[in-house]
Specification:
Helix content of chain B: under 10%
Mean pLDDT of chain B: 92
Shape of chain B: globular
Order of helices and strands of chain A: EEEEEEEEEEE
Helix content of chain A: under 10%
Radius of gyration of chain A: 13 Å
Strand order of the largest sheet of chain B: 1-9-8-3-4
Oligomer: heterodimer
Largest sheet of chain A: 7 strands, mixed
Structural class of chain B: mainly beta
Radius of gyration of chain B: 13 Å
Distance between the termini of chain B: 37 Å
Number of strands of chain B: 9
Strand content of chain A: over 45%
Structural class of chain A: mainly beta
Number of helices of chain A: 0
Mean pLDDT of chain A: 93
Largest interface: A-B, 27 and 19 residues
Order of helices and strands of chain B: EEEEEEEEE
Shape of chain A: globular
Chain lengths: 113, 111
């Protein structure tokens, strides 16, 4: 089954404790992306990657890092989480062909206290 | 990418067609219209997209006006499971621009 998986699905952590949210897709997609969703602000892109070893900033990259060492994985790293990073996070992937439809993961709800 | 305008909410009776409008009056020639939906707090789900011709798939139909300044997503027989926020997005192709999600339309399907 074609899917995007994220782990963990729920995480409560404390300020400053480094964490990684993993994202993996099994569709051989070139393009992967991270979004965060906050009430009243909608979905905003954090980082994206066009292919292995190619990443770029989205609209709200501050406080986040990403890496793309393998095509299927695109982890999101919060080196020193802060309470304003409490949010619902989505990973997405797509091919770079004509359809460009993005497939989204189930989401990771992160709370930073 | 062009901006879109959608009504904030709509109701639809179960079993009836749901027609969700979207205005994108500043759309340019190489921009596609995409529709996604988000059920509660799940990941957004792709529904359909089109350039200038009407499109239909197993989920919905997309009607784009001849001048491409507006479009309508049609769910032919809405069910309670179609209750969701529906996003109309205009995106350039080819291009690496992200999907820009506005506030969308909250569709409530009522039994």
């Amino acid at each position: 089954e074609a899917q995007v998986t994220q782990n963990p699905r729920y995480l409560i952590t404390v300020t400053g404790k480094k964490l990684t949210v993993t994202c993996s897709q099994n569709m051989n997609h070139e393009y992967m992306s991270w979004y965060r969703q906050d009430p009243g602000l909608g979905l905003r892109q954090i980082y994206y990657s066009m292919n292995v070893e190619v990443t770029d900033k989205g609209d709200v990259p501050e406080g986040y890092k990403v890496s793309r060492k393998e095509k299927r994985n695109f982890p999101l790293i919060l080196e020193s989480p802060s309470p304003n990073q409490t949010s619902l996070y989505f990973c997405a992937s797509s091919s770079t062909g004509v359809s460009y439809e993005q497939y989204f993961g189930p989401g990771t709800r992160l709370t930073v206290t | 990418d062009a901006k879109t305008t959608q009504p904030p909410s709509m109701d639809c009776a179960e079993g009836r067609a749901a027609n969700l409008p979207c205005n994108h009056s500043t759309i340019s020639g190489n921009e596609y219209v995409y529709w996604y939906r988000q059920i509660h707090s799940q990941g957004p789900q792709y529904i359909i997209h089109g350039l200038k011709n009407n499109e239909t798939n197993e989920m919905a139909s997309l009607i784009i006006t001849e001048d491409r300044k507006s479009s309508t997503l049609i769910l032919p027989h809405a069910t309670l499971r179609d209750t969701a926020v529906y996003y109309c997005i205009v995106r350039r192709f080819p291009g690496n621009t992200p999907l820009v999600f506005g506030k969308g339309t909250r569709l409530s399907v009522i039994a």
